[in-house]
């Protein structure tokens, strides 16, 4: 009998309302909620209960926050939801749609404000038993809470955790006091840290346009339930990670080499291209490499048109408004399709002398692929950066941030350090590439198995009014049905050829 994958929801606020038996009470309550209307009603009531907790703990009497906080800790932890928990609860409820087992814990039970740690073994057990983590917490100056930092440090410093948590999934939710209160920077930094300790990172799903995770707005205690857009993004994060957990849980296997797209975006006199070929020679027979050297190609800048893509069509057809004969992207288009994994490759120099870059223009122009119903969906992605010591250009972070918005799955970047023309950690890069290919093989099998279910990630043009109008027209013309049918026929044929029964 197949066991359901487990998704561990981690509430990372010191104001959390649930702990102890209250964690299970919350999970039981979510299991009994039938639809979104009931969910929003539940979240509203629980928010009001948490506000009431604050009032009764001393806010009505004008007590100091320290007194209020001490009084709150005397509660049983079985009622109310903090703002971070409201967002997390909405995500966990949505995750149930994919038949995953959900669990809720509060990090404040384990990491105290004094810096002490309690019940560490219990926390370790929960981390080890989970197939994925969904971490929800407040924004602190555009970054995550100290509780999340403590969790990351614990995993990184514990050999057993570090080894056994490799290849598990991570998703994030951030709640800020303002609409633009640092939620996205928090999610980006947090994502980067989790992939660097071995997790695979996802954003939210296509219904919320595949950003970096849930982004909530709550300026005071008990107000997160009023942010319907933030709840929607959180629900998208829950669906995204749960869907992928389910796919990976099938544990299918593919035969033959892994298909990997390498895009050289910045180079100097062919140095990066040459280093890449040397690495790939070590994996002859293990992968089929497609190499696009965007640093040598003339690619025009994106003009941010209001009709991207120009129309809905099968993936093989180029759909960017720029069709100049001098622009090379149209000729590269088909090479961008149908891979298991994507590796953007960059040279990061101390100075720009002799450097040729197609990085920014390529990233901008890939917009039509994303807005064409996520043509690169569920491909593994990791940047490969050759960085001169002292360059400090953050290309790994930038590339990951851009490409995860294509509905890809991000894993640890591979960074080769160069000093006086010599690659200092070539052996380590080789080991990282080996791990990357194994991960790509695992994800490819899960993605291809999905072809039998005929599901599509539809782009939702949130914020683009003209595009939304055009979107409705395309749907009426059944263009999308043609595209989806073509995409899944291709995937199905590939699955029949590559998946081992």
Overview of this protein structure:
This protein is an alpha/beta fold. The chain has helices spanning 21-31, 36-59, 65-72, 83-95, 120-129, 146-157, 159-164, 183-195, 228-249, 271-281, 329-332, 359-365, 367-370, 395-403, 426-449, 465-476, 479-498; strands at 6-11, 101-106, 132-138, 169-176, 200-201, 214-217, 258-268, 287-293, 341-348, 355-357, 380-381, 384-388, 409-410, 414-419, 422-423. The strands form 2 sheets. Strands 7, 8, 9, 10, 11, 12, 13, 14 and 15 form a 9-stranded mixed sheet that branches. Strands 1, 2, 3, 4, 5 and 6 form a 6-stranded parallel sheet that branches. It is 42% helix and 16% strand. It contains 17 helices and 15 strands. The protein is globular. The mean pLDDT is 92. It folds into 2 domains: 6-249, 3-Layer(aba) Sandwich (Rossmann fold), CATH 3.40.50; 258-498, Flavodoxin domain (Rossmann fold, 3-Layer(aba) Sandwich), CATH 3.40.50.360.
Q: How many H/I helices?
A: 17
Q: Would you report the number of β strands?
A: 15
Q: Radius of gyration over alpha carbons?
A: 23 Å
Unreliable residue runs = none
CATH architecture of the largest domain: 3-Layer(aba) Sandwich
Summed up, the domain count is 2
Task: Tell me the β content.
Answer: 15-25%
Mean pLDDT: 92
* Anisotropy-based shape: globular
Per CATH, the class of the largest domain reads: Alpha Beta
- Can you say what the CATH homologous superfamily of the largest domain is? Flavodoxin domain
**Structural class of the secondary elements?**
alpha/beta
The CATH topology annotation of the largest domain reads as Rossmann fold
Largest sheet: 9 strands, mixed
Intertermini distance: 18 Å
Residue share in helix: 40-55%
């Amino acid at each position: 009998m197949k066991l359901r994958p487990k998704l561990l929801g981690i509430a990372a606020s010191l104001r959390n309302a649930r702990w102890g038996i209250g964690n299970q009470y919350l999970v039981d309550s979510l299991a009994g909620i039938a639809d979104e209307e009931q969910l929003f009603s539940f979240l509203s009531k629980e928010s009001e209960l948490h506000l009431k907790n604050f009032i009764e703990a001393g806010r009505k009497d004008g007590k100091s926050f320290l007194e209020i906080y001490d009084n709150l800790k005397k509660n049983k932890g079985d009622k109310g939801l903090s703002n971070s928990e409201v967002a997390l609860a909405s995500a966990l409820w949505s995750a149930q749609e994919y038949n995953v087992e959900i669990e809720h814990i509060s990090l404040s039970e384990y990491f105290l404000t004094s810096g002490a740690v309690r019940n560490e073994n219990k926390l370790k057990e929960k981390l080890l038993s989970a197939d994925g983590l969904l971490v929800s917490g407040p924004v602190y100056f555009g970054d995550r809470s100290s509780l999340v930092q403590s969790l990351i440090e614990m995993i990184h410093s514990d050999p057993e955790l570090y080894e056994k948590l490799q290849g598990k999934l991570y998703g994030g939710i951030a709640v800020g006091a303002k609409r633009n209160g640092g939620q996205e920077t928090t999610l980006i930094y947090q994502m980067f840290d989790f992939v660097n300790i071995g997790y695979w990172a996802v954003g939210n799903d296509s219904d919320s346009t595949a950003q970096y995770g849930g982004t909530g707005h709550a300026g005071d205690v008990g107000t997160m339930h009023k942010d319907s857009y933030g709840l929607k993004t959180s629900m998208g994060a829950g669906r995204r990670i749960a869907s992928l957990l389910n796919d990976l849980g099938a544990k299918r296997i593919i035969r033959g080499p892994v298909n990997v797209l390498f895009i050289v975006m910045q180079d100097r006199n062919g140095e990066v291209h040459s280093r890449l070929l040397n690495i790939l020679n070590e994996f002859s027979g293990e992968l089929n490499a497609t190499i696009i050297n965007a640093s040598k190609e003339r690619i025009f800048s994106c003009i941010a048109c209001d009709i991207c893509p120009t129309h809905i069509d099968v993936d093989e057809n180029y759909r960017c408004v720029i069709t100049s004969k001098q622009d090379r992207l149209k000729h590269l288009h088909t090479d961008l399709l149908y891979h298991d994994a994507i590796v953007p490759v960059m040279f990061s120099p101390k100075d720009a002398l002799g450097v040729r870059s197609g990085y920014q223009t390529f990233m901008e122009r890939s917009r039509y692929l994303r807005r064409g119903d996520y043509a690169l969906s569920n491909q593994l992605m990791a940047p490969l950066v050759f960085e001169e010591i002292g360059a400090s250009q953050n290309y790994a972070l930038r590339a990951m941030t851009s490409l995860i918005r294509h509905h890809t799955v991000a894993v640890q970047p591979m960074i080769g350090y160069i000093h006086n023309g010599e690659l200092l950690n070539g052996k380590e890069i080789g080991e990282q590439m080996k791990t990357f290919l194994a991960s790509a093989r695992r994800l490819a099998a899960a993605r291809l198995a999905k072809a039998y279910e005929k599901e599509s990630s539809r782009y939702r043009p949130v914020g683009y009014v003209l595009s939304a109008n055009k979107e409705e027209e395309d749907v009426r013309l059944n263009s999308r049905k043609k595209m989806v049918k073509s995409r899944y026929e291709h995937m199905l044929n590939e699955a029949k050829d590559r998946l081992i029964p």
